[in-house]
Specification:
The chain is of the alpha+beta class. It has one domain: Jelly Rolls (Sandwich), CATH 2.60.120. It has six helices and 13 strands. It has helices at about 5-10, 15-20, 40-55, 60-70, 75, 145-155, and strands spanning about 90-95, 100-105, 115, 120-130, 130-135, 165-170, 175-180, 185-190, 195-205, 210-215, 220-225, 230, 230-235. The longest helix is centred in the N-terminal third of the chain and has 13 residues, at about 40-55. Belongs to the cysteine dioxygenase family. InterPro entries: CDO_1 (IPR010300), RmlC-like_jellyroll (IPR014710), RmlC_Cupin_sf (IPR011051).
Length: about 240
């Protein structure tokens, strides 16, 4: 096959569709690529991510590498780190031209998320400060299109089976955790009752709704909001 034809096929890829399909097989890197580019700062990371997402074809392994390579520097991310006394916060750092979202999440002492999915997107989570624990659960009734249609019809009904925990993993500073819906659901918590935690999250494609799950398997749609954008507190009607 001629190289020009290959290039043309790559140019015609639907990026969002491709990224969602990639969640069916991608499982994450354990360490940075041996010959991958270095990232020296948060601005460098953001620039490198924009370059990666400029093309229709996104090398998701390279995105993973970039998140692994960046080393936390509080001077760079402190302006985005907005805490709330009562709940963890989601603070938008970069909207990725609509192709990805880069966020800083701030976790007060003992704060945790609900068990949730990721709307068939990729989720990379890098620790910047403190430690988090990720509890992972089997995705209820995860299957083919017929199963998914049935789930949509029955999303408000109680499932016969409780959520099944399949992992409980600490995430120390500068480590990167990865999840997609093919790998399961998760719940993230700050286990410390004396120290706060800060994490950097990349979602691609970005999404504004997901589903949260109760212990009995009941699935509830949830709107995804931002506590702040670009270091500025969001108004309630702009979240």
């Amino acid at each position: 096959m001629a190289l020009s034809k290959i290039d043309g096929e790559i140019d015609n890829i639907d990026q969002e569709k491709y990224l969602r399909q990639a969640t069916q097989y991608y499982c994450a890197l354990e360490k940075p690529l041996k010959f991958g580019p270095a990232v020296d700062s948060l601005p460098d990371l953001i620039s490198a991510l924009h370059r990666e997402f400029d093309a229709n074809y996104v090398n998701i392994e390279m995105v993973n590498h970039l998140m692994l390579t960046y080393k936390s520097n509080p001077k760079e991310w402190r302006k985005y780190a907005k805490f709330d006394r009562y709940t963890y916060t989601r603070n938008l750092v970069d909207a990725g031209n609509g192709k990805f979202n880069l966020l800083i999440l701030c976790w007060g002492e003992g704060h945790s998320s609900s068990v949730h999915d990721h709307a068939d997107s990729h989720c990379f989570m890098k620790m910047l400060k403190g430690e988090l624990r990720e509890k992972r659960y089997r995705y209820p009734n995860r299957g083919g299109e017929d199963d998914q249609q049935q789930q949509q019809q029955d999303q408000q009904q109680i499932n016969d089976h409780e959520l099944v925990e399949i992992g409980d993993t600490p995430i120390p500073v500068n480590d990167v955790a990865y999840i997609n819906d093919n790998l399961g659901l998760h719940r993230v918590e700050n286990p410390s009752h004396t120290d706060t935690s800060v994490s950097l999250h990349l979602y691609c494609p970005p999404f504004d709704t997901c589903s949260i799950y109760q212990n009995n398997g009941k699935k509830i749609p949830a709107k995804v909001t931002f506590w702040s954008k670009y270091g500025v507190r969001s108004k309630a009607n702009e979240q």
